[in-house]
Give the backbone structure.
Amino acid sequence: MSTNIKKYQLNNEMVWMGDLFKIDGKIQSKPTRFVIRPLNVNDAEQMGELSQKIYSHLKDGEECFIHKHSKEYYYDVFENPNIHYIGVFVGKNLVGMSYLKICQNKEELQEELPNSNYDFFRNNNVNTRIASFGADSVLPSFRGNSLNAIMIDYRFNLASNLNCTDCTSIVDRNNRWNMTPYFANRFNLFSTAIDPSDNGKISLLHKPMGQDSVLSNKKTRISIPYNRFELIDKMISRGFIGVDFDKTNASVTFAHSSFYVSKEHAPANILDFAPYRNVFSM
């Protein structure tokens, strides 16, 4: 994180405060205060305006349906008690937002984590509650302050308070910028899929609550360019998961885990990936 966060409990809600050091890409001589808090129906109009602003700034090939929503959509969304939106405010202006949706069965999770082959509700565990993260949005002027990473951390705390057992999310496989904050918050890239909403290639991410690591071997590391999709898919099929992202060379670091692997999958052979091997001790 690029800022110290002060955490408060006001009216039974989490309120986080911190400072922005960069606006419009320029370092500020004096930090600007921001606040993160839960959003409610009174914020719906600003949420619609922010969504449209984000959508208007998307580059070619970055079209995303989650940013087409109007303010009417956000008025209605608060009728669902399982969806929790949070927002970043600078003064009275909403400059960033995201959501957490609680999924309690396979059908609900399939809408948030499409085409996942991993059964989070194995053995019909009635205690399983998945917190699905989505709609990560920050106005271009306020990017570069780790706000996405901070919102992920905020939602992880919220998920814990809501007695969730797991957190999940998806990232467009071409969107290398959004990989960094999720990996910084210890999410695992455990699978890839095609999003039925737009046929785009997506990475499926997961973080188990109360479990620091799901790795079989913490020492072996293999670095793969993020856009080598076929090679990454092969590695995942052999029981490797993405655990880190290097912004400098745009590569995903993989390590072995048996957590997500079905018994029928072949054991990993490190020699298959020798050209990309990058081994070091933690």
